[in-house]
Amino acid sequence: MFSGADVKGAADRMTDMPLPPLRLGVNIDHVATLRNARGGFYPDPVRAAHEAIMAGADGITAHLREDRRHIVDADIERLKRQILTPLNFEMAATAEMIAIAKRIRPHAACLVPEKRSERTTEGGLDVTQTDHLKPVVDELRDAGMRVSLFIEPEVAALEASAALGAPVVELHTGAYAEACLAGEAERIARELARLYHAAERGAALGIEVHAGHGLNEENVAQVAAIPQVVELNIGHSLIAAAVFVGLGDAVRAMREAMEKGRRSIAA
């Protein structure tokens, strides 16, 4: 079982190494969810993307689901045309989505698991499906996209991702976020240790490590403090906060919380 000592040990091993900057990718899916609740064109997720970028987002993430429950094809097309920062296109590894990605050519394509019955992504991709995933990774990479895999924070998943040739992974932080919500200190420490060990292994394999899912202003600092993590992708909590303070202020507050966590590494 991992412990707080494991977390400290992983961080201490990075003390003499240059610390990479930490980027924020803002997921605008749930602006589209709100729009689709009534139909029409408002609120516009592309406007939300511009607002997030102006407030300090380094990139925009959008998940085009097979059932089009929030983001739709026209959103992806407009995002690609109108934003200047990198577009991270979350997608299932299906022929339909591969064709769309190759037509749109976003900066990045993140392969995620997808079930029609789920409210939101429930876990990491099964990266043992090498016969299915390897050709997808190769095809997207050959089309000029930075390919990432959304995976569980397990060393075995990192090693499988490396075998698939993925240059980037995004660690699923959902279990950590759930532990924070429940206020379970031992479980929080255990999940953080899993994230630290996975990030450390990913960096050792030459993989760029991102993280996301369930992160908010209250729990993000401890993930931001993982030295090998270079990007966080955050959506729902930012859009929820925006209802009260506006998206720009929500993004700025998130960046401040992230930077506080990052600074704690050197403390």
TrEMBL record:
List positions binding 3-amino-2-oxopropyl phosphate.
Answer: 27, 38, 214, 235-236
- Offer one example of a GO biological process linked to this entry: pyridoxine biosynthetic process
Localisation per UniProt entry: Cytoplasm
Record bears the keyword Transferase: yes
Q: Name a GO CC annotation attached to this entry.
A: cytosol
Q: Where is the active site?
A: 63 (proton acceptor), 90 (proton acceptor), 213 (proton donor)
**What pathway does the UniProt record associate with this protein?**
Cofactor biosynthesis; pyridoxine 5'-phosphate biosynthesis; pyridoxine 5'-phosphate from D-erythrose 4-phosphate: step 5/5
Question: Binding positions for 1-deoxy-D-xylulose 5-phosphate?
Answer: 29-30, 65, 70, 120
Q: What Pfam families would the database entry show? A: PdxJ
The Gene Ontology terms for molecular function here are: pyridoxine 5'-phosphate synthase activity
Record site: Transition state stabilizer: 170
Q: Which residues cross the membrane?
A: none
**What EC number(s) does the entry state?**
2.6.99.2
Q: Please indicate if the UniProt record lists Cytoplasm as a keyword.
A: yes
Principal localization? Answer: cytoplasm
**Xref: Gene3D superfamilies:** Aldolase class I
Entry keywords, A to Z:
Cytoplasm, Pyridoxine biosynthesis, Transferase
Q: Which reaction does it catalyse?
A: 3-amino-2-oxopropyl phosphate + 1-deoxy-D-xylulose 5-phosphate = pyridoxine 5'-phosphate + phosphate + 2 H2O + H(+)
Assembly behavior: Homooctamer; tetramer of dimers.
Tell me, in a sentence or two, what this protein's role is. Answer: Catalyzes the complicated ring closure reaction between the two acyclic compounds 1-deoxy-D-xylulose-5-phosphate (DXP) and 3-amino-2-oxopropyl phosphate (1-amino-acetone-3-phosphate or AAP) to form pyridoxine 5'-phosphate (PNP) and inorganic phosphate.
Q: Which family does it belong to?
A: Belongs to the PNP synthase family.
Q: Per its UniProt record, what NCBIfam families does this chain match?
A: pdxJ (TIGR00559), PRK05265.1-2 (NF003624), PRK05265.1-3 (NF003625), PRK05265.1-5 (NF003627)
Name of the molecule in the record: Pyridoxine 5'-phosphate synthase
